[in-house]
Write a structure and sequence with these properties.
Strand content of chain C: 5-15%
Chains: A mainly alpha, B mainly alpha, C alpha/beta
Number of strands of chain B: 0
Oligomer: heterotrimer
Helix content of chain C: 40-55%
Largest interface: A-B, 102 and 111 residues
Strand content of chain B: under 5%
Radius of gyration of chain C: 24 Å
Order of helices and strands of chain B: HHHHHHHHHHHH
Structural class of chain C: alpha/beta
Shape of chain C: globular
Shape of chain B: globular
Helix content of chain B: over 70%
Largest sheet of chain C: 6 strands, mixed
């Protein structure tokens, strides 16, 4: 057990930066590096190593059994795919829209559910329900609800006298319909992360602001928003990465269709793998990795940068 | 007075909107699972002609020699095993990374993000597992799930550890706590609500995962719950009433878990107003 | 120092414990030195009729001898892409059970059978199999599978009562077909049912039109494999796509063609809300199950071409039973395969499914009582006006045909444009296979 000289101890409680024992030594002792080891070993051995090693296959014609080095041919093939630009645009639309909506709606719901609202317990439970259902289950359910003729949504619209569209069968609409479902499914998690961030904000700040006569909007703008930033960063990063990589929901609901209308990079890659084009789909994975990294890394750096400025 | 009225108006509106948006799809699933096969074929939101919910449940359980029961057991073991390892190890990592900034941080961050960004390579992973002798074992599959879920948890924990004032650590240190006791006595309780969040989210992810078990732990006796859906939906035919009954049944465990943990989340939130 | 070492050791023990616990849970291999050998047969497609077939074959075989027990494992994703992934991954990681069920034809080539599968070229029972079948499950170096069902036609299912009501004849040319469709449309019915909610059904017209290409040039498939002909530039082959456009342009489709499913299509053509539904023969079993009263109301004809005397039918080969190269019981597997490739095996299939088409095993008999659709194939078989679908004659098959055909069939893309896009798609696949001349 660590023993600290009493003088050090009193110093530590005072917390005046100048008089502390050297931070670094204290940190080394109390937050040892070996804490990282067990998790890191599993992560590296079972994920990072095989995945990054597999990037080699992006430069090969790979049948899972035979490997033939072909240089950049796979990338050439991947980029000359006539459907690629569509998949590219769809990926960005899907990622940014789902992520943006989850941030805005998640914060809104989070604030609502940490306020003194009536039926709070019920609302907290209900908003999170969709997170519990599997992607396949959600996809199948909404396929049925969005059916252009028998689906509940268009039946309900018909009652009001609106002729509902083919949510998943209209090539111009399919992607956006899936986006709505994805937000429906994911907003509960965003709200939960926000709630955890919101309750961590000390109430004294709000009370002090109230004493100063700040209005609700003012308090939200100047206390809530800046202090809930770690949660915002988390929600943005998680939902954006998830959105840029999402294909399972798309796959269940439309299979990338009708035609190629709702294909995203990830579903194109998945299809290539299914057809046995392993080298090509690995090349696609490399491209996807580069694209997502190009979006996420600067964003992450920027978000965290702003955080330390506070 | 005025304030309570507006609170109830807001609340009532929220309840109504949430019911339409979040409960109707579940009501739809429920209604389909009450119907007979032909009755559910049209997929309309109508009152069931005959109520055969119980028969449907029995049929779903009996399909393929009670595959659903096997699947429940497999999925539950896998979930408990992998999520408990994942959360503890990830919390340790998040704790140290947030408390002890260093030059290496950007590198750590890159790998954490890489874990979220890169789609895993199935076949090479299988090769590594085979060489370690953990392929086609439940433990091996659990470790794979740990590896895939690690990034999410670390990211979440790291973000929230930075919210916890260090004074508490220092106070514990004065009491003579070592690093492990410090982590479990100070870090863990304070991270409670976010840990519960991670447990809930990752449990749902693992419980509802079907691709990884299929690849890393093949075989009918190793089926997981998602796989049972395919018993009622094939390329050529779907028995909707049984499919929705199955969706309902396999959503129950995550739901129970959420109801159980929801209290913890709320408790963590009400007591978790950390005094800065 | 020692204080620091202990936690590491603990963490190590924890992880080791997990791994050990996992090992205990894993299924060991069965080293049966005595007692019967158990063979696992991975069916894995989730299709009821296929599971019934596999079960019937296993039961009949288990009853016929006592040394080997065949068990069917029917757990698998029904989504065909997921199933393809699973098959390939299991073969690549040597995790395939003793036997598995998979397509014959061009899809087989993607599994690299030479490296992954048990070669049965040297067995006696291969000589009992139809040469066309053997070609569909072979590479240059070996033969790999035995047929588990029957060969059947693909083309138009049509509603007989409606034809009778409107006084229509089975069309022998494409123009006659369009005239029939117009008559049906004018009578207020759906002339052609389409079901793009199950996207794979969009391909039937294109694929089943192959007989007409084959009739125009018997060597077309070989030339196609060698990259000497393609769809877009061949006046006959391009019709495989323009016919789909004709159906859309004619306004023949059901209102809900974009979202309807296979079952809706079968119901429409069986109960008489639609005149035609392009479909593969195996689906007649579904009609028999779901609409038994209408089973004789549905007839069949091949996709007509330009020449009335040359109205033939494109046939589909059944799926196959294969074994991975690393099976522990190659002899037992071959014994079961021999049973499947024998009249006793055919009878087991007939017992499960009834008459579904033509058996590809010598000495097998078809029951006299056949559903109308199957009976309608008879004249085509008798006159020899049949050709296997292209995927059984050439390894080249573009993977995105269903998406392209959904676009053509929905009026989003013209037939010519669809043919061009499909040629590019097929070229990509041929390059991936490493074929000569691409």
């Amino acid at each position: 057990m660590a023993t600290i000289a009493p003088s050090d101890a009193t110093e530590a409680v005072v917390t005046s930066p100048g008089k502390r024992p050297p931070r670094r030594k204290y940190a080394q002792r109390m937050y040892p590096r070996w804490f990282l080891l067990p998790g890191a070993v599993i992560f590296f051995v079972l994920f990072i190593a095989p995945t990054f090693a597999s990037f080699y296959y992006a430069f090969t014609r790979w049948t899972l059994f035979d490997v033939e080095f072909i240089g950049f041919d796979n990338f050439v093939t991947f980029f000359t795919d006539p459907q690629l630009s569509k998949g590219f645009t769809n990926t960005l639309i899907f990622g940014t829209l789902t992520s943006g909506l989850k941030v805005v709606l998640g914060l809104l719901i989070g604030v609502l559910l940490t306020s003194e609202i009536w039926a709070r317990g019920y609302l907290r439970a209900v908003v999170f329900f969709p997170v519990l259902v599997s992607t396949v289950g959600v996809g199948i359910t909404f396929q049925a609800l969005m059916d252009p003729y028998d689906g509940l949504i268009n039946r309900a619209l018909a009652v009001v006298g609106i002729d509902g569209p083919g949510w998943l069968t209209n090539p111009d609409l399919a992607l956006y319909s899936i986006i709505i479902v994805d937000v429906w499914r994911g907003v509960g998690l965003a709200a939960l992360i926000y709630m955890a961030g919101l309750v961590a904000i000390p109430q004294e700040y709000y009370e002090a602001a109230k004493v100063d006569g700040a209005g609700a909007w003012h308090r939200f703008r100047n206390i809530t928003l800046p202090l809930v930033r770690p949660a915002t960063t988390t929600v943005i990063i998680l939902s954006l990465i998830g959105g840029l990589r999402e294909f399972q929901l798309i796959w269940v609901m439309t299979g990338g269709g009708p035609g190629f209308a709702s294909d995203v990079l990830a579903s194109v890659i998945y299809k290539q793998y299914a057809y046995g084009f392993y080298g090509l789909s690995t090349a696609g994975n490399v491209v996807l990795f580069v694209v997502v990294s190009a979006v996420i890394l600067p964003l992450f750096w920027w978000l965290n940068r702003k955080q330390t400025d506070l | 007075m005025n304030r309570t009225v507006s609170r109830h108006v807001y609340g009532a509106t929220a309840v109504l909107v949430s019911a339409i948006i979040f409960l109707v799809p579940f009501a739809f699933i429920l209604v389909q699972s009450f119907k007979t096969g032909p009755d559910s074929a049209s997929l309309s939101f109508t009152w069931p002609i005959d109520f055969v919910f119980w028969e449907n449940v029995v049929t779903v359980f009996q399909t393929r020699d009670y595959m659903l029961i096997t699947a429940f057991i497999n999925s539950t073991i896998l979930t408990v095993l992998s999520v408990s390892i994942m959360v503890v190890l990830a919390a340790m990592i998040g704790w140290v990374l947030a408390r002890r900034p260093s030059r290496w941080n950007p590198i750590f961050t890159f790998f954490i993000l890489a874990g979220l960004i890169v789609p895993p390579a199935i076949v090479p992973t299988a090769w590594i597992m085979q060489s370690l002798g953990i392929f086609n074992t439940l433990g091996g599959l659990a470790l794979v799930e740990v590896a895939y879920g690690m990034s999410f948890c670390v990211l979440l924990f790291r973000a929230f550890v930075s919210n916890i004032p260090r004074e508490l650590d220092e106070a514990a240190t004065i009491d003579g706590a070592g690093p492990i006791r410090l982590f479990f006595q100070v870090g863990f309780p304070l991270l409670k609500s976010v840990i519960v969040t991670a447990i809930v989210v990752q449990s749902v992810t693992v419980f509802n995962d079907f691709a990884n078990p299929l690849y890393f732990l093949p075989g009918e006796e190793n089926a997981t719950v998602q796989l049972t859906l395919f018993n009622f939906q094939s390329q050529f035919q779907t028995t909707w009433n049984l499919l929705f009954t199955d969706i309902l049944l396999i959503t129950i465990p995550p739901l129970l878990m959420y109801i159980f943990f929801n209290r913890q989340i709320v408790a963590g939130m009400t007591s978790g107003a950390i005094k800065g | 120092m020692t204080r620091r070492a202990r936690p590491i050791a603990l963490a190590g023990i924890a992880v080791a414990g997990i791994v050990l616990a996992g090992c205990a849970g894993g299924g060991g291999s069965s080293d049966d030195t005595e007692g019967p050998i158990t063979l696992k047969w991975f069916q894995g497609s989730g299709v009821e009729t296929n599971i019934a077939t596999a079960d019937a074959l296993a039961e009949a075989f288990n009853a016929s001898q006592s040394d080997i027990i065949v068990e069917v494992d029917a757990s698998g994703p029904s989504d065909s892409a997921a199933l393809d992934n699973l098959m390939k991954t299991r073969l690549a990681t040597n995790e395939m059970p003793d036997m598995f069920w998979y397509n014959s034809g061009s899809l087989l080539q993607a599994l690299s059978p030479d490296q992954t599968m048990l070669n049965i070229a040297d067995t006696d029972f291969v000589s009992n199999l139809d040469p066309a079948w053997v070609a569909a499950v072979s590479t240059a170096d070996g033969v790999f599978g035995v047929p588990v069902q029957t060969a059947g036609g693909g083309g138009f299912f049509y509603n007989i009562p409606m034809y009778e009501e409107l006084g229509l004849e089975v069309p022998n040319t494409w123009d006659e077909f369009l005239a029939n469709a117009d008559a049906i449309k004018d009578a207020g019915y759906t002339a052609v049912e389409m079901t793009f909610g199950d996207a794979w059904t969009s391909q039937i017209v294109t694929l089943a039109d192959f007989y007409n290409i084959w009739a125009s040039d018997n060597d077309w498939a070989a030339k196609y494999t060698a990259n000497e002909v393609n769809f877009a530039d061949d006046p006959v082959a391009v019709q495989s796509f323009t016919k789909l456009q004709d159906i859309y342009d004619g306004g023949y489709l059901n209102e809900d063609f974009a979202s309807a499913l296979l079952n809706d299509g079968l119901e429409a053509v069986a109960t008489g809300t639609a005149g035609h539904y392009p479909m593969l023969g195996f689906a007649q079993a579904t009609i028999a199950t779901n609409w038994p009263d209408n089973i004789d109301d549905v007839g069949f004809f091949g996709i007509p071409g330009e020449n009335a005397d040359e109205h033939g039918m494109t046939i589909w080969m059944p799926p196959a039973l294969y074994a991975p190269a690393n099976t522990e019981h190659p002899d037992a597997v071959k014994e079961f395969m021999a049973f499947v490739a024998s009249p006793a095996g055919c009878d087991a299939v007939t017992g499960a499914l009834g008459a579904t088409g033509a058996y590809l095993v010598e000495g097998c008999s078809v029951p006299d009582e056949a559903p109308r659709i199957v009976a309608d194939w008879g004249p085509y078989f008798d006159s020899g006006m049949i050709a296997p679908a292209l995927e059984f004659l050439s390894p080249v098959k573009g993977p995105n045909l269903m998406q392209i055909d959904v676009e053509v069939g929905s009026g989003v893309r013209s037939g010519e444009s669809g043919a061009e896009l499909y040629d590019a798609d097929a070229a990509k696949q041929a390059q991936q296979l490493g074929l000569e001349g691409w």
